[in-house]
Amino acid sequence: MNLAVDLQLICFVVLGVAMIAAALGVVLLDRIVYSAFLLGGVFLSISGLYILLNADFVAAAQILVYVGAVNVLILFAIMLVNKQEDFTPLGNRWLRQGATAVVCGGLFILLATMVLATPWALDTTVVIENTVVQIGRHFFSDYLLPFELASVLLLMAMVGAIILARRDFVPEGIDPLTRQEALTLPERPRELAGTPSDPR
Amino acid sequence: MNSGIDLQGSFIQTLTEFGLPHDLARAFWIPLPMILVVIGAVVGVLVTVWLERKVSAAAQQRIGPEFAGPLGVLQPVADGLKLVFKEDLVPNKADPWLFTLGPVLVVIPVILSYLIVPFGQNLLITDLNVGIFLWISLSSIAPIGLLMAGYSSNNKYSLLGGLRAAAQSISYEIPLALAVLAVVMMSNSLSTIDIVEQQSGYGILGWNIWRQPVGFLIFWIAALAECERLPFDLPEAEEEIVAGYQTEYSGMRFALFYVGSYINLVLSALIVAILYLGGWEFPIPLDQLAGWLGVSETTPWLQVTTASLGIIMTILKAYLLVFLAVLLRWTLPRVRIDQLLDLGWKFLLPVALVNLLLTAALKLVFPFAFGG
Within 13 Å and on the Cβ side, how many CA atoms surround B41? Predict the structure, then answer.
């Protein structure tokens, strides 16, 4: 046992405990803002685990994508909606919580037995020096199809988001009365951007 | 290959010669650069604050701080001491946990990013493979701290400021990353050392600013927006929303925001110097000069001179950029939020994409000049 191995073990225990505690906080806390912030903590701990596994690029990408983009957007949504509503506690709530606990516990036991039963093949080859180059090679050789599929999926999501955001586009030459039925989605009517407001 | 001065190697070697085990010697080395970086970052902030006060005074035809030390150089220290002794307030009905954690989350990633700033061939904390990408990803944590501060203050101006800060920094991160990507494509590596090495050899002519003029401008604008400096200081626009997310803060918690923003400014200037202005390189190629004069590369005095010149050059370039940023702050008006977002999404993003494509094309056509 030398210093580096000890340090690695300590880091692993600290990161693991932090991740599990934060994840439990995400699920169990009542206030949604706390859950969102703790979710950022979970993502950060996961990236710490990636660093322990020598996957430096994946760790940095994890922080950039999940903490910097996904979590910030979740927080944005929560803070912009900011709906104050007191939920009345339902009767027989313990039944739901008990059922959830049973399902989650069952999943946990299933995964735990799978982890223990699988004979994991340990990779004893030398540490990869330049992870970025390796990831790039894999993306453009044996993982080409999943990589391209993921990019197409992201492109579809982006196009969809733009269409949703630009829903207030008004085609010209259509009678405003017929347009009301034809082109609106079932939602609260709002002022159209870029068009003069209705005199009515 | 001549690796220059290796402080870590010689430190560990000295300690092992005293009979310490190698591991322990390494463990003794680890805190030294960290402490040095924190001290360096804080001193950098003090210098920047002084520069800001003096330049703003000059821009407004005042004298500026004068009585605290010669030319008022001790004024930032006095400011800092004042903030230390101020009462630490938490507003009523604010969330005390998030209120404390917000500024901490803003400062820590910025200081961590100093990990990858090189002042010479071996004068940096770690030469990571992911180098510059680590800086981009760490700087994306800061908006969470800003949102946290804005939300927990229980004040509408704070919330607005926090939301603006987060919106601004996620929109300008994309052109920033694309500008960096063009540089990375030329140097075939994310490591900051390799990026500077790729610019070396031809003195000032080899610097990336000549090959990436558009990228340099995009990066500088986006970096100013990330630092929330005027003309992009909408998150704390004092005429509209008091002081943004800092409104309710005082004492040390406010000082953390204050220090964090200035460290971020110095850090961005350092990164611009590394990416586009040749890092620690002298404007004339010193290695070749030494070769012409017949001085060997391994001469001790030459190594010490180049190393100290490297540190001086890096800091000089960074502070020239800081000076430019300060001058911009005191001479330009603020943009509106819609102008800011339009500039980011409708102008900088397409231009950065075109710049990236052009760099890739030029790299294929002229591999000798654009890193084949």
Answer: 26
Confidence (pTM): 0.81
Q: The tokens of B156 are what?
A: 């509408």
d(CA B149, CA B247): 10
Report CB contact under 8 Å: A79, B24. Answer: no
Q: Give the C-alpha separation, B235 to B229, whole Å.
A: 10
Minimal CA–CA distance to B233: which of B330, B365, B299? B330
Of how many residues is chain B composed? 372
H or E element at residue A34 = helix A32-52
Residue A111: pLDDT above 90? yes
Interface test with B, best of A8, A64, A65 (most B CBs within 10 A): A64
Per the rule left: phi > 0, alpha: psi between -120 and 50, beta: everything else, B178 is alpha
Task: Answer yes or no: are the C-beta atoms of A168 and A193 closer than 8 Å.
Answer: yes
Confidence of residue B118 (pLDDT cuts 50, 70, 90): confident
Say if the ipTM goes beyond 0.85: no
How far B156 CA lies from chain A's nearest CA (Å)?
11
| A163 in reach of chain B (CB within 8 A) | no
Mean pLDDT value across residues B324-341: 86
Give residue-wise pLDDT tens across range B10-60.
Answer: 777 777 777 777 777 777 777 887 888 888 888 888 889 888 888 888 888
